[in-house]
Write a structure and sequence with these properties.
Elements lengths: L1 E4 L2 E4 L3 H9 L4 E5 L3 H10 L3 E4 L3 H4 L11 H14 L4 E5 L9 H15 L3 E3 L7 H9 L4 E6 L5 H4 L9 H17 L3 E5 L3 H10 L4 E4 L7 E4 L1 H4 L17 H17 L11
Parallel strand pairs: 3-4, 3-10, 4-5, 5-6, 6-7, 7-8, 8-9, 9-10
Antiparallel strand pairs: 1-2
Helix pairs in contact: 2-4, 4-5, 5-6, 8-9
Bound molecules: 3-methyl-2-oxobutanoic acid.
Length: 274
């Protein structure tokens, strides 16, 4: 699908386009987005995939985990992002509690996200335990992205956010789950916080795109949480994170200067008033 935007002509990113990127060795770029204004900038920059992640629970709502965010809240964030996007493929996380019950519940949640937010696809965490739901959602025509490795919705089961699948048994389980997700019809899989050697093996064995976050350089694409990558968060510094800006300090400084200007009556000046 070709889109015309003022002076730009470009192709919308589809699940087929992502597969073709993997096949020709072009890396896929993905970032999270939760609101209209930021999504517009990231889309304009040419990001391939925007993930409306349930990390909104952390970075937008201030919760410690991703568990509290609701389906209604995810739909609110997703619809804001969708209104901004012209080119990127938008993937929306099914939040904790909206799909683990059974495949009918999972399908209903996926349909709400597609219908009410206008999303292009959804993401779900897990392997064999959710495979029936994955199949049911895909058979209803909804593209599904899988998510293996560190799956934050299961943090209370894991107990820590440390690297997953370092041991052979867990690595084999992850590979089996990746095959199951591919066979079920997923269009891509996120691998979070696993050894780079395992990321490489999965990306070689599996034909659909493998997008890593802390899964090394040999996977088919990379995803980061936008707040981390822009340096809006100061405390979160995992090894896999590359910060491209230090927005926390820049916003702090700008806000302090604004406060000072208001207090000193420097703002507004003659030209800034009617
Ligand atoms: O919710 C999220 O931001 C995610 C990414 C970490 C992949 O799932």
């Amino acid at each position: 699908m070709s889109v015309h935007n003022d002076n730009k002509e470009f192709k919308k990113i589809t699940t087929h386009a992502l597969l073709a990127m993997k096949q020709r060795g072009e890396k896929i770029s993905m970032l999270t987005a939760y609101d209209f204004s930021m999504a517009q900038i990231l889309d304009d920059a040419g990001i391939d995939i925007l993930l409306v992640g349930d990390s909104a629970s952390n970075v937008m709502a201030g919760h410690e985990t991703t568990l509290p965010i609701t389906l209604d809240q995810m739909i609110y964030h997703a619809s804001s992002v969708i209104r901004a996007v012209e080119r990127s493929l938008v993937v929306v996380d099914l939040p904790f509690g909206s799909y683990q019950g059974n495949s009918k519940e999972a399908l209903n949640s996926a349909i709400r996200i597609m219908k009410e937010a206008g999303a292009h696809s959804i993401k779900m965490e897990g392997g064999i335990e959710i495979i029936e739901s994955v199949k049911r959602i895909i058979s209803a025509g909804v593209p599904v992205m899988g998510h293996l490795g560190l799956t934050p919705q299961s943090i209370y089961k894991f107990g820590t956010y440390t690297v997953r699948a370092k041991e052979e048994a867990e690595a084999e389980e992850l590979i089996n789950n990746a095959h199951l997700l591919e066979e079920a019809g997923c269009f891509a899989i996120v691998l979070e916080k696993i050894p780079a050697t395992l990321g490489k093996r999965v990306a070689e064995e599996i034909k659909i795109p493998i997008i890593g976050i802390g899964a090394g350089k040999h996977v088919d694409g990379q995803v980061l949480v936008m707040h981390d990558m822009l340096g809006i968060n100061k405390e979160f510094s995992p090894r896999f994170l590359r910060r491209y800006l230090n927005l926390y300090d820049q916003i702090l400084d700008a806000t302090r200067r604004y406060i000072q200007d208001v207090k000193s009556e420097d703002f507004p000046n003659e030209k800034e008033q009617y």
